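Escalated from tier 1: pyridoxal-5'-phosphate holo job.
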Amino acid sequence: MTPDEFRRYGYQAIDWIADYLAHPERYPVLAPVKPGQLTDALPAHGPEAGEKMEAILADFDRLVVPAITHWNHPGFMAYFANTGSQPGILGELLAAALNVNGMLWRSAPAATELEQVTLRWLREWTALPPDWFGIIYDTASLSSMHAIAAAREAADPHSRTRGTSPGLVVYASEQAHSSIEKGAIAVGIGQDHVRKIPVDAEFRMRPAALADSIRQDLADGLHPCCVSATVGTTSTTSVDPVPEIADIAEQYGLWLHVDAAYAGSLMVAPEFRWAFAGCHRADSLVTNPHKWLLTPTDCSVFYTRRPDVLRAAFSLVPEYLRTAADPRAVNFMDYGVPLGRRFRALKLWFIMRYYGRQGLANILRAHVALAQELAAQVDADPRFERTAPTPFSVVCFRYQGTDEQNKRIEERVNATGEVFISGTVLNGRYTLRIAIGNQATQRQHVQRAWDLIREAADR
Ligand code: PLP
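Tier 2 regenerated the structure:
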């Protein structure tokens, strides 16, 4: 591609993005396609000869975009809604252009140092301890897997060479994200050695049940090694009592990991830091800027106060990657499974500079305020009940009828193409769930979702 061609198509792509982000509501939020529809519309085999960019861009519009579920749509309120903000998109674009591989300081000095600088800024903005080490992985699932691997290393340094010794045990609440269990599978601890600790009426881990479970495992000759507390659980955004869990972790010598994948971003707003009490005592913590900090997927930030343990778990330097030791030259490949690493810090740096801490805090505050308004409306309608407290920007509620009726409400609302909500099961009953987290979502969008839900209930 010549520079002139690149410029022409580049402008076209940027124009497309600018129009798209200005009016994502022109599209149905949930892709109105059937499984396999796009596959069937595309050629079965890749082209032998190269094609014109015009044809490729036209097919993007004609075939790909109609099969997109639009996370940028202001009516996207399913799962954890997110935002791929414009400064973040520009950072992503430039990172793709530079295409550095951040395995070593030498292979990518700017990517390495910008990662250290942005994570130092974020650590300050979120009031985490100043001596914590930060690294960016792709997802919270991988971040938590690394926490469990570090816990394994701390509990049994031979596991690296001899394989995971049987009997290591990981603890998390029954509301914890499935990634904790997957992490235990990945590092060889095994699903049978993940204890799902019961929760209280507000879906928070019960510390007494945690202590009981640890004692039982010790009595059975097992080796408790890690507990994962969640600040902002996936279904309800409940907050585990981290201070009490930290006491127990300390008493029994467990690695304490905090999964704040969703809610961690909210620490940039000081009035929400109550939710993070005790987190400074953790051995590691994950938060996902790609969930709520306006960062295009993917970007998961992992902090640990014991980087030496993480390094001991994973450092493996082949001759062809050996470089002179310099205390200021961090080689991020030493702190995890991936060797090749994208320049994810660039988009985060763009976002942090463009919005500033206050700007980001205000956007998140607005999301929380919208959720609180919706929660009050739900409470005021006797046909509905809230099924969990609403500490942040997710509202869980149900129509006071059968599970089937609630699922039908969800289906009808989603079929409008105006909003996309999801559901979960709480205390054995199907629950609707509205998650506010997109920058474009305003009061009228939340109101529209609520109106559609009530209309569906009427019907
Ligand atoms: N932890 C929590 C609390 C989550 O809610 C999620 C996803 O929603 C994850 C971890 C997994 O995040 P990721 O998709 O980045 O692996």
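The radius of gyration is 23 Å.
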